[in-house]
Write a structure and sequence with these properties.
single chain, alpha+beta, 2 domains, three-stranded antiparallel β-sheet, about 35% helix, about 30% strand
Length: about 170
C-alpha cells in the first residue's frame, strides 16, 4: 500500500479546513489548537494557516479510507460506500460487503457466525478505523460502532466525534 500523506484537517461547524504551512507569522485558529502529530501523537500548535477543504473531497477521503482498511485487512472492500456527516457523527454506509464464504454461511442460515467474525474483526481494527477518521477530520473520535445486515448485504461504520474545541 502506498504511504499516506497526513494532512491535518478539522471540522468547524459545517466547514472543513486543512492546515498548510504558513509563511511568516500567521497564527492557527483556536479550532486547530489540538492538532495531533501523526508520528509522536503529541498535541500542539504548529505554524500553519487554515484553508477551507471541499466537503465532497473529505467525504470521499473518509469513504476511501474505511474501504481501504477493509480491503487491506479483511481481503475485500465494499462494492459501494457513501459517507455522511451530520453534526458530530460520521456514518459510512457500505454495500456489497460479504465475501463468498460469508455469503455461503448466510445462505445456510448461519448469519450469527458471520456477525461474530465481523465483530471480532471490528474490535481488532478499532484503532485503525478511528485513526483514519481522526486524521482526516482533525477531531478525536469518542465512540465507534459497527453493524451489518444479512439482507440487504450492507454494513455501517459510525464514528462519534468529540465536541468542537475539546
Amino acid at each position: 500500500m502506498p504511504a499516506r500523506i497526513w494532512v491535518p484537517q478539522t471540522l468547524v461547524g459545517d466547514r472543513y479546513y486543512r492546515l498548510e504551512p504558513s509563511v511568516g507569522s500567521s497564527t492557527v485558529p483556536s479550532a486547530f489548537g489540538r492538532a495531533r502529530s501523526p508520528r509522536s501523537g503529541e498535541r500542539g500548535v504548529w505554524p500553519h494557516v487554515a484553508v477551507e477543504v471541499d466537503r465532497g473531497k473529505l467525504l470521499s477521503a473518509i469513504s476511501n479510507a474505511v474501504v481501504g482498511v477493509h480491503r487491506e485487512h479483511y481481503g475485500r472492500g465494499a462494492e459501494t460506500v457513501r459517507t455522511l456527516i451530520q453534526g458530530d457523527c460520521v456514518v459510512c454506509v457500505l454495500e456489497g460487503i460479504y465475501t463468498t464464504g460469508e455469503k455461503t454461511l448466510i445462505a445456510a442460515n448461519n448469519f450469527g457466525a458471520v456477525r461474530e467474525g465481523r465483530q471480532t474483526f471490528q474490535d481488532a481494527m478499532r484503532d485503525t478505523f478511528v485513526g483514519e477518521v481522526e486524521g482526516l477530520t482533525g477531531r478525536d473520535v469518542v465512540a465507534f460502532f459497527s453493524a451489518i445486515s444479512p439482507d440487504p448485504d450492507m454494513g455501517i461504520e459510525v464514528f462519534v466525534l468529540a465536541a468542537e474545541g475539546t
